[in-house]
Amino acid sequence: MNPIFTPSLHSQRHQFVVDFVRKNKPRKVADLGCGECRLLKQLKFQRSIELLVGVDINGAKIKKNMLRLAPLSTDYLQPTFDQLHIDLYQGSVTQRDARLTGFDLVTSIELIEHLILPDLELFSSVVFGYMRPANVIISTPNSEFNKLFPGLTGFRHSDHKFEWNRSEFRSWALKVCLDYGYEAEFTGVGEAPQELQESVGFCSQIGVFRRMNVLPNRFEEEVFFYTLVYSVNYPTLCDNNTFIEVLLSEVVYRAEQMKNSWMEKTTGGTNWGLPHSQTEQQKRSACTERLDCPGGGEELTESLWTTKQEESGTLNRFVVVPLAALCSFCPKIAELSGSLSNLRRLLMDQPQVKLSQDGFSLLVKCEEQEPEQIDSDEEEDEEDAPAVQCSHQTEPEEDWEANI
Amino acid sequence: MDPRKRPDLSDKAGFQMLGRGRGLQPVEMTVGRSRGLLLSTEGLGLGRARGFLPPGDIPPGRGVLPPSTAPGRGLLVHPDEVGVGRARGLLLPSAEPKVGVSRGAVLPRLGQQYEQKHMLEMPPGSAGDTAAPRGEEVSAPPCGQGSTLVSMFRGMGVTSWGRGTPAVGRESGHDGEVKVQDFPVGLATAMQGAGHRGDSMGRGSSLSAQMIVGLGRAALPQLGMGRGQALLSSLPSGQIKPVCPTSDPQRTPLSPPHPEGGLKVVPMTQDLPVPLSSALPKKEMTMESVCSPINKAGTKGTPITIGSNHIVVSCKNEAVYQYHVTFTPNVESMTMRFGMMKDHRSTTGEVVAFDGSILYLPVKLKDEVLLKSSRRTDNQEIEIKIKMTKILPPNCDLCIPFYNVVFRRVMKIIGLKQVARNHYDPESAVVLEKQRLQVWPGYATAIKHTDGGLYLSVEVTHKVLQNDSVLDLMNMLYKQSKENFQDVCTKELVGAIVITRYNNRTYRIDSIEWNKSPNDSFTLMNGTKTTFLEYYSKNYGITIKEMNQPLLLHRPKERSKPGGKQIITGEILLVPELSFLTGIPEKMRKDMRAMKELTSHINVSSEQHTNSIKQLLKNISSSPESVKELSRWGLEIGSEILIVQGRTLPLETICLQTSCFATGTDVSWSREVVRDASINSVPLNIWAIFYPSRCADQAEELVSTFKKVAGPIGLRMARPIRVELRDERTETYVKSIHSHLTSEPNLQLVVCIMVGNRDDLYIAIKKLCCVKSPIPSQAINIRTISQQMKLKSVAQKILLQVNSKLGGELWTVNIPLKNLMVVGVDVHHDTSKSHQSVMGFVASVNSSLTRWYSRVTFQTPTEELIHGFRVCLLAALQKYHEINHNLPEKIVVYRDGVSDGQLKMVEQYEIPQLIKCFETFPSYEPKLVFIVVQKRISTNLYSWTSNNFGTPSPGTVLDHTLTQKDWVDFYLMAHPIRQGCGLPTHYIALYNTANLSPDHLQRLTFKMCHLYWNWPGVIRVPAPCKYAHKLAFLSGQYLHSEPAIQLSDKLFFL
């Protein structure tokens, strides 16, 4: 098609929706006629959205493209409190489905021109009368612009049932507003050359509808005409298991760090069998950490102490790490848990961590760095120490390497 | 043709220039009876043609010559320009001019190989001096030779294409008007080509511009029909006459055919009653046949039932149909081609695999389907012709790529996440809190075509990902070392693989751009400029928090998009905050405790392994969507893990100086080897031990223990020179060692005791003792000798190691091959790419394989490995001669570090070069066996007893079913498995003039796995490979230069 738009027209339409979302921050968004799920794929990155729904009459098309909407690998690495659930339905916009009610935004991009007029009536009543979202964005071709496409006769696409000019679209929209209690604004994307902008308008005209009043809940029978094709939950900290996992991983790691730097400071780190350069480095890092840790810094080292506990016959040494010190050492823990007592409550039942009797300190076991019990018969190259570091390795080949 | 070859073809830059042939009216060409021409009605770019054209694929080659004008004809292939120096041509004199059709049964790749070799042997009289328009120039052979000739010819066609030589041929437009100006570049190239040819044929001048131009185009049609005439000169046969294709008298002067050497030129007229393709006898398309496998099965050993991580894939469809799609007028844009094909799904069906010109369908269309589309940019009507070219058996190699695409989708459907090439399940992640790591279980899957048919290979893998972003890591590193932060950071990050927040891609960090920040801007595809900050915020809703961070730079490998079009170049910048590191951090590798924890998660037993596979199969079969996806191509994944019959090779006998003993089932002889004398021990008369003062006691203890244990081993050892160092600084060690080396020139060995893992000290000592002042050296970590209890066994092992380093001989196995030299080669690549790759080369120089000669070569990135290889082999042969006064009759090379994709290259290039090396010695033609050793493979073996999977015993070999079609290969699991599951080593015998039988190859390899002296047991690879690996690692990682030549006859690198 000529003129070619930059960026392309469809991405301009999608960008329009994305910009709307960024500005108005809807939580529940549905895209009618989602097709290849391109718009949804862009929308899923918008943090405000918690529920994203796509509907298309073509189930095969959805199936083909639905996997684009699956969470990324990295979404699992650092989950946030943002939540996102995506559902894709196969269904017709002329039919009602209770799962599509209560949305903040419903978009229907280049859809209505594919409907025959009676269906368009149904569409209006379903979207504006039944779904009743707070906002609706509808885009459709502007037929006035067609004259700028050289050689174009008829409609832009063979499946189009109609292409409206600006006033036709406007009159339809205003009637819908009147019928269902919405107000509309008109705009568009795809600008004509400067001198023609007035006379032809945008290539795609867009109506943005805003609901004027919330009607009282009509007690209608719940209907489910759509078929759920795809449904996915994104990892989120709102999920309790994920949350505990993340918190624990943070707590265990930081407590271990604090224990190590404290132990090094008190014992001088000599009997650890660590090479000198490394120990020095760690000592240095311990100092810098203290300096970098506002507030909690100085008392941090003083607040740690060791304790001994008899456990099933063996004596275990623990380093006591007060939760308060932990929170000030690692702001992320404080952020995650909210308060100290909350943190205590959260950690209480976790088998991975051991709390002191009052529950306000973490007991981190001092694992004696006794040399590994290795049967030297099974070692290769152990004498040439620097060349082979993993002396526990029993088989000459580093098998695990090949498995990663 | 092998689909893998295609990128090769399209990568050549030259041909694109040739590409714009236009204005030719093929139908009306003088010799225009080839259907191929029809396909190319309007200037299909030659470049494009090469991108997709599989010349080898055309089942029936046909060439037709008009009766009246062409009494002689030739099948000609012009010489390669690449310098492999295989000029070839084939001349087919024919007494009777006639229209002929030759039809060849299509042979798969193997056939081609054979044919190429065949060509090489052609006598120069009939081959080599001729040039042909292109590979597919086929003149009809007069008799029943047809099939061989055609297929032979096809084989050559493939090669010449691959090399990117400009095609030369001739043709004429019917109106005699060839638009030279349309080919400005192509002309030049073609001219060059012609000139080149001219040298060899003595006839370059006769080619007119037009002719050459026409030639450039010759490459098009899918059907390799003869077009234009053979251009011959100085051919022995008097029957052969060059034919001028010119029809128009006007043009004749422009392309003056010069009769030379008694050759006669017959101008051809256009109005010959040449039948068009339709008149040709219609060929029936038949299914490609599959050739029978090579015999590679051995018989020695005990049969056992074993399992492997493979699942049978059955194909329900009868065939897969290959079509060639042409767009007229030509459509350049691949996207547009895809789009147009998409519009015709009603014809092709929903299930398609299309690469822009070759189309695969599970359904049979009519022989030729004509469709119409209109180009959206200019409403030009485009005619799309879909022509069937082949009927493939559904397990054909050509189908494997899209089967794999289908299977990758299945993995996604069952909810796995793709990271790099494999699929993982993050929901079952194991979190290693202390290391800030997550371990994701997953699978590496591939559909393979092996000797046994189609299999799905499932490797159970794990992905290690770091919990923190690269920025977090940078912050941590900054806290640790503020002064040289950038260096530390570069060292830690360059070479690492990151995965990003916003897409599923992985990138390798090639460098860090310290001067850039997220506030910098870059140019988007559409030409607009935006900052990183804006870009991520706008497109992904991600707010970058830290403005003061550098950017990570990734340089993508140069590769072309499908269709050979745009070459992706340029650099990719990544934001550290949005990137996560994958893989095991370097620092952690040194932390034994952490590694132990990690390996406990990722080193799964055979039982866990097979359970995971079964789970995957269950997940697939219980997902209707997955089953449906597979069935679209008629695929069905079996439900059982493959069970096959393998063998356990006979146990070997280890020979010491006087005693011999059979190995037990644990294939370990750590006790025997310290009880009895080694084959040959070097008396240790003068040696020195260096230790810091605080290790004085341990050093004393060690020396006295040495004395006690040396006797049984057979080692005579004098009191050492003891050197107590006043501190532990590297400089102190180096200075002290150096001064003793100068003052005591007969010093045999340097022993250093050091505290902790000190790489810097280790490097300094090794550099001094391996490069500057060559002497065997032994570094000992104080920790290993600090335990009284274990001191004895540690001392024994050190002495064995020291003896090897001094040139002693520990043990051997009996190898019933005389005058044998075994060579091991491995390559060490530096992960950060900051250093050169290093090739380690180790060769045996005596009959009992107990003396080894070793060399190292450093490779520059542009240099081929083979140059260094030759130098090393020559030196080893000389050394062998020096010791044995003869040269080895048989040479067995174990070459590590060759991937599947490089096999052909090694076979066709490296091995011939090695053989050439023998010419250095007068009338020396040893037998050569060249075996590629592959350690990193996806095949696992399990034992299968009483319905349970376990680990197979050492010496298990599998030489059928899962082996590769084109080679003699086998899987051997030589080593015992103590942890994890059985990962065999794959051996491929690329070359074998010694005619070692499969049994001998297997047993020799197994024997070689017994000879690694640093380990009294069997190892995974043949000892020379392991030695070569150690040597390359030491040189590449620590020395960064070649070790001194004086050490080359000792295993100093152990």
Automatic annotation (TrEMBL), chain A:
Enzyme class: transferase
Record family assignment: Belongs to the methyltransferase superfamily. HEN1 family.
Xref: InterPro entries: Hen1, SAM-dependent_MTases_sf
Keywords: Magnesium, Metal-binding, Methyltransferase, RNA-binding, RNA-mediated gene silencing, S-adenosyl-L-methionine, Transferase
Biased composition (Acidic residues): 369-385
Enzymatic reactions: small RNA 3'-end nucleotide + S-adenosyl-L-methionine = small RNA 3'-end 2'-O-methylnucleotide + S-adenosyl-L-homocysteine + H(+)
Gene Ontology biological process terms from the UniProt entry: oocyte development; primary piRNA processing; regulation of RNA stability; RNA methylation; siRNA processing
GO molecular function: metal ion binding; RNA binding; small RNA 2'-O-methyltransferase activity
Renumbered residue ranges of the record's region Disordered: 368-404
Organism: Xiphophorus maculatus
Protein's recorded name: Small RNA 2'-O-methyltransferase
EC number: 2.1.1.386
Cofactor: Mg(2+)
One Gene Ontology cellular component annotation held by this UniProt entry: nucleus
TrEMBL record, chain B:
Residues covered by the PAZ domain: 469-583
One Gene Ontology molecular-function label: piRNA binding
UniProt xrefs under CDD domains: PAZ_piwi_like, Piwi_piwi-like_Euk
One GO-annotated biological process of the protein: meiotic cell cycle
Xref: SMART domains: PAZ, Piwi
Cellular component annotations (GO), alphabetically ordered: P granule
Compartments, record wording: Cytoplasm
Cofactor field: Mg(2+)
Positions of region (Disordered): 123-144, 245-264
One matching Pfam family: Piwi
SUPFAM superfamilies: PAZ domain, Ribonuclease H-like
Domain of life: Eukaryota
Coiled-coil blocks: none
Record-linked InterPro entries: PAZ_dom, PAZ_dom_sf, Piwi, RNaseH-like_sf, RNaseH_sf
Predominant subcellular localization, coarse grouping: cytoplasm
Domain Piwi stretches: 749-1040
Record keywords: Cytoplasm, Developmental protein, Differentiation, Endonuclease, Hydrolase, Meiosis, Methylation, Nuclease, RNA-binding, RNA-mediated gene silencing, Translation regulation
Subunit structure: Component of the PET complex.
Family: Belongs to the argonaute family. Piwi subfamily.
Protein name: Piwi-like protein 2
Organism: Xiphophorus maculatus
Lineage, uppermost ranks: Eukaryota, Metazoa, Chordata, Craniata, Vertebrata
